[in-house]
């Protein structure tokens, strides 16, 4: 476990810590660290040690967030919250999520070792869940802080039949205290997250950093296509009601529409075939459809067009189709004053930057219900994410740390929603 690391090379220090965090993973390519799993539990002491080096007091809250508070935050001063998530997708990369935990911790530690202090109270949160891989829910940790988490999600089960409540108790959390995690908006100055871009824009433009203007809206549907099973060798091809053939046509049509509808992206990421025998005509197929856009009107219009097309294919092929919404989150804007604060911090550190929106969802989607949000992007090689080959450069990492250090020293004397750079009257 890392207890002390020389900070003469901030970029390499950050990379080393992220490498160490990535070792807390299930076997296999990349990083697989599921929410409230054994790897998550084992990671907590390491992150807690980094919090203490940064001058923070760590605490595991009711839903598995590891929260580090500085003395001023512990004393009740309104705090700036920074953070990101600890969990990963299956066989993901080492920077998605953990970058936004480790970078502000390192920035705080570097300030501390220089004898400097942030200009406001600070909390850093390593959120327990964002990816929504293990349980039928997502943004559990950030929704809890925002006070919008439905307690019913605690009864959701993973594929082993373990409820979220049980998993949290095994992690060492106390989900019976869920209500206590909700924050008072008057005691929160704002929320800032650092994240890899997960796209190619910054790399294509030769920029290390970008400032996010909005987080995309996301909706996920579960589509069930029902046909009729039969013997694959004795049932004539004509007249078959093959659910897989129909679903295949739907997948192709959905992909075609997503490619041509303006301002919309999406994917069909899971597909389950029943009965799944080599010599039986598939009777049922269930697949997921995810649609994203920062523009709510475009997302809703795209959804209507895609679902109507899928229903048309089902009718043509004599199949039945049903759909349900599993998840929906509206796109949210970043606060202009936080955009300006991040841009000015980049400028002060000699970093050119640009504004761009995020095509991925983040904990900011939930935190927006609590407070103003801001987000800093770090370029990643090839725009690749959710993949073992996810990569960033040490020099970009150092630039990010120094920007956050600069930001933390200038955030105290401000009044929302006035420009962060206006002095108090």
Reported by name, the CATH topology of the largest domain is: Aminopeptidase
Summed up, the domain count is: 2
- Give the number of helices: 12
- Uncertain runs are 1-5, 418-425
- The CATH C-level class name of the largest domain: Alpha Beta
Shape: globular
Following the backbone from N to C, one meets helices and strands in this order, namely HHEEHEHEHHEHEEHEEEHEEHEHEH
C-alpha Rg, in Å?
23 Å
- Name the structural class: alpha/beta
Name the average pLDDT: 94
- Percent in strands: 15-25%
Determine the N-to-C terminus distance.
Answer: 47 Å
**Helix proportion range:** 25-40%
The main sheet comes to: 9 strands, mixed
User: Number of DSSP strands?
Assistant: 14
User: What would CATH call the homologous superfamily of the largest domain?
Assistant: Zn peptidases
CATH architecture of the largest domain: 3-Layer(aba) Sandwich
Binding site for Zn(2+) 2: 96, 131, 386
Protein name: Allantoate deiminase
Organism: Vreelandella arcis
Binding site for Zn(2+) 1: 85, 96, 195
Describe this structure in words.
It is built from twelve helices and 14 strands. With 425 residues, it is α/β, with parallel strands linked by helices. The chain folds into two domains: 283 residues, Zn peptidases (Aminopeptidase); 113 residues, Alpha-Beta Plaits, CATH 3.30.70. α1 crosses α4 and α2 packs parallel to α4. Pfam families: M20_dimer, Peptidase_M20. Homodimer.
């Amino acid at each position: 476990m890392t207890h002390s690391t020389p900070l003469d090379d901030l970029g390499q220090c950050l990379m080393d810590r992220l490498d160490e965090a990535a070792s807390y993973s299930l076997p296999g390519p990349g990083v697989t660290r599921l929410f409230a799993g054994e790897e998550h539990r084992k990671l907590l002491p390491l992150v807690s040690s980094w919090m203490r080096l940064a001058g923070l007091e760590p605490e595991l809250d009711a839903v598995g967030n590891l929260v580090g508070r500085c003395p001023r935050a512990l004393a009740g001063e309104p705090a700036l919250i920074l953070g990101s998530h600890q969990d990963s997708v299956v066989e993901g990369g080492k920077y998605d999520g953990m970058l936004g935990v480790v970078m502000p911790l390192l920035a705080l530690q570097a300030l501390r070792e220089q004898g400097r202090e942030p200009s406001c109270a600070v909390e850093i949160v390593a959120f327990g869940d964002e990816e929504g891989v293990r349980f039928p829910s997502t943004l559990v940790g950030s929704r809890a802080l925002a006070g919008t988490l439905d307690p019913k999600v605690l009864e959701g089960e993973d594929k082993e039949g373990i409820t979220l409540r049980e998993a949290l108790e095994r992690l060492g959390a106390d989900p019976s205290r869920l209500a206590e995690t909700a924050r008072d908006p008057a005691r929160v100055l704002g929320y800032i997250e650092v994240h890899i871009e997960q796209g190619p824009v910054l790399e294509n433009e030769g920029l290390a950093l970008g400032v996010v203007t909005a987080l995309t809206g996301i909706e996920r549907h579960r589509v069930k296509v029902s046909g009729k099973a039969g013997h694959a060798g004795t049932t004539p091809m004509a007249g078959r009601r093959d659910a897989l053939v129909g679903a295949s046509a739907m997948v192709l049509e959905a992909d075609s529409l997503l490619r041509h509808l303006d301002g919309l992206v999406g994917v069909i990421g899971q597909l389950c075939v029943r009965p799944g025998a080599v010599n039986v005509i598939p009777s049922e197929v269930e697949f997921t459809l995810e649609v994203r856009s920062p523009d709510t009107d475009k997302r809703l219009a795209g959804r209507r067009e895609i679902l109507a097309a899928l229903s048309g294919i089902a009718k043509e092929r004599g199949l039945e189709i049903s759909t349900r919404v599993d998840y929906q989150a509206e796109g949210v804007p970043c606060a202009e004053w936080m955009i300006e604060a991040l841009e000015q911090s980049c400028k002060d550190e000699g970093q050119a930057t640009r504004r761009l929106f995020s095509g991925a969802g983040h904990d900011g989607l939930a935190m927006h219900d609590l407070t103003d949000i801001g987000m800093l992007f770090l370029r990643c090689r090839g725009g690749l994410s959710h993949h073992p080959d996810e990569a960033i450069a040490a020099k970009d990492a150092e630039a990010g740390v120094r920007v956050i250090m600069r930001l933390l020293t200038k955030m105290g004397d401000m009044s929302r929603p006035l420009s962060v750079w206006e002095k108090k009257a």
